[in-house]
Amino acid sequence: MKRAFKYRFHPTPGQAAELARTFGCVRLVYNMALAARSEAWTQHRQRITYNATSAMLTAWKKTDDLAFLGEVSSVPLQQALRHLQTAFTNFFARRARYPTFKSRKRSRRSAEYTASAFRWRDGRLTLAKMSDPLDIVWSRPLPEGAAPSTVTVSQDPAGRWFVSLLCDDRIEPAPATTAVVGVDAGLDSLFTLSTGEKIPNPKHERRDRDRLARAQRNLARKARGSANRAKARLAVARVHARIADRRRDHLHKLTTRLVRETQTIVIEDLTVRTMMANHRLARAVSDAAWRQFRTMLEYKTRWYGRDLVVVDRWFPSTRLCSACGVLAEHLPLAVRSWTCRCGQAHDRDVNAARNILAEGLSVIACGGGVRPHRESSSRTGRSSVKQEPPGATQGIPVPSGRGGSQRPSQPPSTGRTIPLT
């Protein structure tokens, strides 16, 4: 498979200037090609292909105003046109929105070089238009005998330079094991495992909140366009980079440990975007990075031959007793522990993790189910925000409003799953 290995490097002043010019030309070519394609469609209902934009680039280089495009390597400019073509392909396939223009301040500064635009010799990388190789910090070795097929150079908002080498790699599957685990996401504890273990929440953003606030106040006092404002903006970006790096490192260590120790991992299908609408929890939810955790699990389980099962978001993992299966009627967020009517005392998060694991194992054994049907509150008498799947309580007496018991009238259903192998 193809894997990208990312390293930090320290360019010389000449290399930094050359890369900065390349970044600017890449952004300009992308924006001009996007404008040409949009104008051709809105005015003439004509679609322009990649070949047409490539011919436009050749013509642009021959003009006096854009002659500087010929001073940088042509490969990153061609790659920008290919990326634009991919963006339009995704748009017409309804996989993405309409492409937008790249901003000088907010867009990612990067350039992609194919094999014809760099030299790889004896573990040293030299880019086109440069005489000296890049001073790369080799934090980890490349696969034995690997040679990069594509090189992407980028600079983050904190001013750090990175190079990403795309190489062929072969990953050996991890030794098989029978261990399984359910994972419940939270804020007090970042994750709770079905084994009872609680992963503490480092709260990286909260730990650096005072430092970030001071840097942002200092930035607000600087005059726009001044050199001091540029320095202050860099200081803010460095604090953000410190937070993001520590968060990413923690999630990498946690996901790698889970993938190595367990064969099957069961998680919930969380709608993080919806949770971010709650302004009281948005900052904490963003700092938890649940989506990034799931993304890491997805590709690591695929690499090492593990199984990842995603339980439907409507499965009542928190309110369902893992001992007798009775569904609690109401369980506010502030209640961290509760006792079922069967006498079993539950920790809220551990109980949820165990229910998630049980639901995931049932899906593996019986196959994926259908997403539970949710009716309006006028018909069910319950809120339409979150309805429990009837299959979770099929055959289990549930207290009714008159003190009796009733059985669900709908057929049983399991949570929708996304098995990733």
Radius of gyration: 27 Å
Classify the secondary structure makeup into a structural class. alpha+beta
Largest sheet: 5 strands, antiparallel
Number of helices: 11
Enumerate the spans where pLDDT stays under 50 for 5 or more consecutive residues: 369-421
Strand content: 15-25%
End-to-end separation: 15 Å
Describe it.
There is one protein chain. By secondary structure, the chain is of the alpha+beta class. It folds into two domains: 2-168, no CATH class; 172-198 and 255-377 and 386-421, no CATH class. The protein is 39% helix and 17% strand. It has helices at residues 13-44, 50-61, 74-92, 204-207, 209-220, 227-261, 272-275, 282-288, 290-304, 348-366, 377-380, and strands at residues 2-9, 109-114, 118-121, 124-127, 136-137, 150-155, 161-168, 180-185, 189-193, 198-200, 264-268, 307-311, 337-339, 345-347, 398-399, 405-406. The longest helix has 35 residues, at 227-261. It is elongated and about 85 Å long. It starts with a strand and ends in a 15-residue tail after the last strand.
